[in-house]
Amino acid sequence: MAQKLIDELRKACGDKNVVTHPHQLRTYESDGLLRYRVTPRAVVLPGSAEEVQAVLRACHAAEVPWVARGSGTGLSGGALPVEEGIVIGVNRMNRVLEVDLPNQRLVVEPGVTNLDVSKAAGPTHFYPPDPSSQIVCSIGGNVAENAGGAHCFKYGFTTNYVTGLELVLPDGELIQIGGKELDQPGYDLLGAFVGSEGTLGIATKITVRVVPVPEAVRTLVAFFDSTSHAGQAVSDIVSAGMVPGAIEMMDSLAIEAAEGATHAGYPADAGAALVVELDGSEAECEHRFEEVKEMCERNAATGIRVAQSEDERALIWKARKAAFAAMGRVSTHYYVQDGVIPRTRLPEVLARIEELSKEYGMRVANVFHAGDGNLHPLVCYDGHTEGEAERAEELSGQILAACVEAGGSITGEHGVGFDKKGYMPRMFDEPDFDAFQRLRCAFDPAGMANPGKVMPTPRLCGEVPGPYRQHPLEAAGIAERF
Amino acid sequence: MATQELRTEAPGSRDEAAALIADCGRSGQVLRVRGGGTKFEWGTPAADPAVVVSTAGLDQVIAHNEGDLTAILEAGVPLVKAQERFAAAGQMLALDPPLGEGAAATIGGVMATGDSGPLRHRYGAPRDLVLGMTVVLSDGTVAKAGSTVIKNVAGYDLAKLFSASFGTLGLILLVAVRLHPQPRETVTAIGRSDDPELVAKGASALAHASLEKECVDVRWAGSEGAALARLGGATAGPQAEAAARVLTDAGLDTGIVEDDFELWARQRSEQRSADHAVVRVSGRQTELARTIGAAEALGGSLVGRASLGISWITLDPVRIADLRAELAPVKCVVLDAPRDVRASLDVWDAEPSALAERVKQRFDPAGVFAPGTFAGGI
After folding, report:
1. pLDDT tens digits for B136-153?
2. Facing A102 at nearest CB: one of B143, B165, B285
3. Could you tell me which residues come within 8 angstroms of residue A374 by beta carbon, excluding any fewer than 6 positions away?
4. B369 DSSP 8-state letter
């Protein structure tokens, strides 16, 4: 059976685009979250929608589950392979198919990187969702995860920019939803699909909206002796009716690491750094930027650096964007968390994180998208000491619990994937999962698309048309039909 | 369908509403959900439902989190009431669809129909501003999706699926929304012309200008039209002057309107008509001149979101077929029109979708939520 499927994949996509050698398969055993590893049965790299269709038809017939994968930068194990399943990499589908700037639309294949989408729209337009991994992450992955980034407080998320999709459903059917036009009659299946973490199908063509590059951009970084002062500055800015293009905060440990890596000139003794970027019309930016400076000063900023050139702006951002990677300088291992809180609850949640940090004896660096309350605590631990990774994970889970208790979410942009499905019951109840499952069953009644992700416990769809056949997950005793 | 002749139930609480829906589901009683009743006639005319479920009793603002710029509303809260509350804090829910007779439109009704107004240019449609939703399905399941914070990717985004689903998947009980600060002031730049090409050119120039516009609209009536941009913030005047220069460069007869409330109220109100047909055209920016031309040729008028490609054409109902023929394959959804007209054509201008039918079957297994009223025969 297994060999027959692999033969079919080879026939559909060509021998060189089907990976089965154990060493090569290891490349695909994790996504950006390296803690989980599963070796797939095979990896297939289709080059067109027709090939994706052939692959999914073959998997459907063979009842073999599959996982779609973009660039593998996801941080929730969303692209973690399924045991004995197939990984479908979309990286060969990397063409920008159409740049239709008169209509402010681009049509791209899923393997195009996020940055290349913006570049194709430039220099007059840009594509706003900009996850930190934008140089390598694929737009297909962005669609699956509803990717955000530093600019989404003002500009929104992937779901606000995708206007059309060509999809291959898990049974191999090719369908179009939306297009270049908005408000096409019918259900908002685009809204349902974007952010569905690869559990509903594979997008083979993506139409996105791009927007004019703003007339002016003004960026500053202000330093404070504590996150509470920086947090108050954020509150003041938002209360004054401003929606900055980006507003990002780092705490002292994050500053220490980022400065060590980038030498961006952040003072090593600062308790918090706040990057504020205003963009928009020239007149409005200038006017409001002065207000931002005043608000930082009023909240006891110890220093303010205003970018006077594009190079200086890039330097300010370099430290912020390097924060994750730079943690390697202060800790051998770290665990990246992604939680959301109502922004006004920041002081109490930060206090709770500090309390947990002391309790566990582990340092926690904090990097936030401060405007929208999206926290990225980085839990530092020594992975060479037995049991530390588990304790770090536990601490990380406690932080999420604090976020949910404050009225927030277990994930703002990294997704649930494999990593956070166990936390889903903190936010959702059984009837909510039941409703989620209805959507999933409408798209993928056989449950072959990325099974074992998002939902806390595997579920199957009832009322599958045709005679009853035992599902592989059911046979393995890990899912029930209801 | 005269709603007063139909059996109407107005549950006084979310629990009562859930029990009522479960009862309808069990007994197979077809129902239609009614908010303010301002868009109740939209959709495909269908046989009278056994019961109209009114959300009038679900009218509580559950939370307005000023500092977080979010709110949680019961579905029956009139949008105008919610806006008064938000405005007191200098905030707004950036949805400004026409509110209908007596300004009765509710948040649930606006969500369920996906209706929007000029602010959509900058802030998006109901789907873009909804953070979470609680719904009741026909088997009595009360489910929530999304969250009450402005950033969240946990679970499927069912709130988007339910927005613009016209009450065919379930009853919306609660809606969590993102709010925005109200601009300190607004000023509008307007460029007029009697040439559809020039109006479209001006509108396109505005859409592509690197100014931050609150709204970019177009209008056409009586053989003349205009492109309009509303600028907001602390420096609305200078920004509007910059927009006016864009319009002048495009060859339009340009002016500045400082007291612009009426101007935009008219753009909104002309999305509805009591005695003519209103057709919503889902087109592209570059087709605007052709769309205006079609409206003009058929004796109609038009308002639209120039950069989004969406237009509302008001015309004699007998010309709907001509309009569709003229603009095909662009989708032309009939919103307002006399019942007999709506019964004589497919108001949705849509093909059936097997996937959409499966979605309907999964969420409304009892098939009681307004069957036969939605796109593709759902």
Report:
1. 999 999 999 999 999 999
2. B285
3. A148, A338, A339, A340, A368, A412, A413, B151
4. B
